[in-house]
Amino acid sequence: MKFATKAIHAGVEPDPTTGAIMTPIYQTSTYVQESPGKHKGYEYSRTHNPTRTALQNALAALENGKHGICYASGLAATDAVLKMYRPGDEIIATSDIYGGTYRIMKRIFEPFGLIFKFVDMSEASEIRRLITNKTKMVWLETPTNPLLKIIDIKEITGICRELGVHTVVDNTFASPYLQNPLDLGADIVMHSVTKYLGGHSDTVMGALITSDDELAKQLAFIQNASGAVPGPQDCFLVLRGIKTLHIRMQRHCENASKVATWLNNHPKVGKVYYPGLPDHPGHDLAKKQMRDFGGMLSFELKGDIYEEAVRTMERLEIFSLGESLGGVESLCTHPASMTHASIPREERQKVGLKDTLIRLSVGIEDVDDLIADLQQAIEGD
Ligand SMILES: *Cc1c(COP(=O)(O)O)cnc(C)c1O
């Protein structure tokens, strides 16, 4: 089945009791049993809930995986992955990573004895040199946040598979419409469903997708045993959101590409980070690995003056200043003080994340209005 058809139909069956075409919000904590242990597959909503089951199946289908497992947030999904490992196990992660992922690794799991190494994976072969006999997993994010570097998923998963190391790909920035890491050899795909999958800035949720039965079993065990599950209303909202994922992504990509080109030609703008620009170092790889270049981009103003970057962000009107991304509305983020504030400044500078960097989540409004908004904000009065 092609992507658009799956986005609308996967996981969703007419409701068995009424025929309702939309999966109802099963707002219930428990399920009545006929006799002890004799039930219809549902016992307690932390373990299973029909609205969540429909969503998990839909997400698995969109990522070409067998199993989908949803969590209360993207970070709860990451937490579940990390709980599969034990003290002394080593994990290698992308250096240019989502701030909260860095924080859960360094501040929650490192004190419990997991060992983390953060490396630039743009040169995929580097990973072979870093893997030791203690390495159990490689965590990667591509395009990276907020510098939009592109990492070769296939090359890294190839090396890891050969050495018996798991690979997990945070696919939040691309969404399953643009990139399917399981097809490129990854063991687990992670999503902050909060972003493009939900798509309407109204839900916080996370998901893991895998085709490996053993990993799925462990992750579903952690989902139930640790209990960070999403509620049925949130699952319903995401089921509704993903029905338009393909259409939204097409417009996100189209708008972002126009905005990036416009910024790139503006005399006051310095570097523009967007994999769709032909001079982006990851352009060819992105073309190969992704269906299009996505809705996220970052840029700096010439001169790198902090106050000027701040004034530009304050002047934006259609782009709302705030954390998050992937909603239908355009957002502007200051990574240094928002999404990446939990990474020490020194570490940020090392990976090239300047305090003057501005990140845009380009929405699906009319692109002429978006460009006019950027123009008035950059040119000032
Ligand atoms: C937002 C985000 C997360 C964390 O997800 P939450 O739903 O906010 O917990 C992880 N990775 C990336 C790339 C993100 O953008």
Alpha carbon gap, first and last residue: 52 Å
Helix/strand/pairing class, anyone?
alpha/beta
Number of strands: 12
Query: Unreliable runs, pLDDT <50, ≥5 residues?
Result: none
Outline type: globular
Supply the number of helical segments.
14
- Fourth-tier CATH superfamily name of the largest domain: Type I PLP-dependent aspartate aminotransferase-like (Major domain)
Task: Tell me the strand order in the biggest sheet.
Answer: 1-7-6-5-4-2-3
In terms of DSSP E residues, the strand content is 5-15%
Distinct small molecules: pyridoxal-5'-phosphate
CATH class of the largest domain: Alpha Beta
Query: Helicity, in percent?
Result: 25-40%
Question: What does the largest sheet look like?
Answer: 7 strands, mixed
- CATH topology of the largest domain: the name is Aspartate Aminotransferase, domain 2
Secondary-structure element order, N to C: HHEHEHEHEHEHEEHHHEHEHEEHEH
Radius of gyration: 21 Å
Mean pLDDT over all positions = 95
Second CATH tier, the architecture of the largest domain: 3-Layer(aba) Sandwich
**How many structurally independent domains?**
2
Fold and architecture overview:
The protein has helices at residues 3-9, 50-62, 74-82, 99-109, 126-130, 153-163, 175-178, 213-226, 232-242, 245-264, 283-289, 306-315, 345-350, 367-379; strands spanning 67-71, 90-94, 115-119, 135-141, 166-170, 188-192, 206-210, 269-273, 296-301, 320-321, 331-333, 358-361. It is of the alpha/beta class and 381 residues long. It folds into two domains: 3-242, Type I PLP-dependent aspartate aminotransferase-like (Major domain) (Aspartate Aminotransferase, domain 2), CATH 3.40.640; 245-379, Aspartate Aminotransferase, domain 1 (Alpha-Beta Complex), CATH 3.90.1150.10. Helix 2 packs parallel to helix 9, helix 3 (74-82) packs across helix 4 and helix 12 (306-315) crosses helix 14 (367-379). The chain is globular.
